[in-house]
């Protein structure tokens, strides 16, 4: 991961601070060598996020879809070489889902730790995904974990101090169905990083890494296609339903597997909206980038 940071031209002094952090908490480091599925591209965002975590802050990544919030969170955990725990929030989230609850084991009632507890004990990075999906009442249990107290109180068991290496990284989409305003008391416990949309150049780099067999000219065309759709969404001509980076990647996997480009793009992008006018507009955008005569074998070498 540090090699990736060097390629992103991250300030060398920041990389040295990460190395010092790794050495300081080497006894609890995550030594797994599994490769990350995606890498995050963006020098300014990388530097801001790393500075926040080095200062011991909790980090909230806010932004629209397809901005790489979860990718960056997982990349940060790998860069700092920490165990990573994921917690996806929903409307029925309660304290036991986050901290842990009682369960039976070998005829005895024992405590089964949740992601927050495990992160606090192991010195891990806990990713609080879509934190504004849960009710603010349920999130109150996090207050003592995220502020200067850095403790978890477990009724009937103990009060656990949070490991000094532990960091909490939350993500949120603002304005989505099912989301709500983040409580001020909770928001004040984070530094907030607004995530920008991926640039066309960085998306090309992502496609070339994810699909080693794709020809560069087509990687540029597909990243341009995504950029064109994004501009239409910004101007209000399309809804954000069709701005789906995961859908573009899915379409490319289908093409790589032999499906013709147009049916694949329909499945990955066009059909994400059920409005006939929007579908026609998306197909027109695709036509400007990808010829109807193009075959899957032309795109991948």
TrEMBL record:
<protein>
    <recommendedName>
        <fullName>ATPase dynein-related AAA domain-containing protein</fullName>
    </recommendedName>
</protein>
<dbReference type="InterPro" id="IPR011704">
    <property type="entry name" value="ATPase_dyneun-rel_AAA"/>
</dbReference>
<dbReference type="GO" id="GO:0005524">
    <property type="term" value="F:ATP binding"/>
</dbReference>
<dbReference type="Pfam" id="PF07728">
    <property type="entry name" value="AAA_5"/>
</dbReference>
<dbReference type="InterPro" id="IPR027417">
    <property type="entry name" value="P-loop_NTPase"/>
</dbReference>
<dbReference type="GO" id="GO:0016887">
    <property type="term" value="F:ATP hydrolysis activity"/>
</dbReference>
<dbReference type="InterPro" id="IPR050764">
    <property type="entry name" value="CbbQ/NirQ/NorQ/GpvN"/>
</dbReference>
<feature type="domain" description="ATPase dynein-related AAA">
    <location>
        <begin position="58"/>
        <end position="190"/>
    </location>
</feature>
């Amino acid at each position: 991961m540090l090699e990736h940071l060097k390629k992103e031209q991250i300030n060398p002094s920041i990389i040295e601070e990460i190395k010092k952090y790794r050495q300081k908490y080497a006894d609890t480091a995550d030594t797994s060598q599994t490769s990350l599925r995606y890498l995050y591209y963006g020098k300014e965002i990388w530097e801001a996020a790393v500075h926040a975590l080095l200062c011991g802050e909790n980090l909230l990544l806010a932004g629209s879809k397809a901005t790489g919030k979860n990718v960056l969170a997982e990349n940060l955990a790998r860069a700092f070489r920490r165990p990573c725990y994921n917690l996806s929030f929903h409307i029925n989230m309660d304290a036991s889902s986050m901290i842990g609850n009682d369960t039976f084991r070998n005829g005895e009632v024992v405590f089964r730790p949740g992601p927050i507890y495990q992160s606090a004990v192991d010195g891990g990075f806990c990713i609080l995904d879509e934190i504004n999906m849960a009710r603010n009442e349920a999130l109150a249990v996090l207050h003592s974990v995220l502020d200067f107290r850095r403790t978890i109180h477990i009724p009937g068991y103990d009060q656990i101090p949070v490991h000094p290496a532990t960091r909490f990284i939350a993500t949120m989409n603002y304005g989505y169905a099912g989301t709500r305003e983040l409580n001020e008391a909770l928001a004040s416990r984070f530094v907030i990083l607004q995530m920008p949309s991926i640039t066309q150049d960085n998306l090309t780099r992502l496609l070339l890494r994810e699909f080693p067999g794709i020809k560069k000219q087509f990687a540029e065309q597909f990243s341009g296609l995504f950029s064109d759709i994004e501009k239409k969404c910004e101007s209000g001509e399309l809804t954000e339903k069709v701005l789906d980076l995961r859908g573009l990647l899915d379409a490319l996997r289908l093409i790589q597997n032999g499906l013709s480009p147009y049916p694949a793009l329909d499945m990955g992008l066009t059909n994400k909206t059920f409005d006939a006018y929007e579908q026609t507009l998306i197909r027109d955008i695709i036509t400007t980038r990808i010829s109807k005569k193009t075959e899957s074998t032309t795109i991948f070498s």
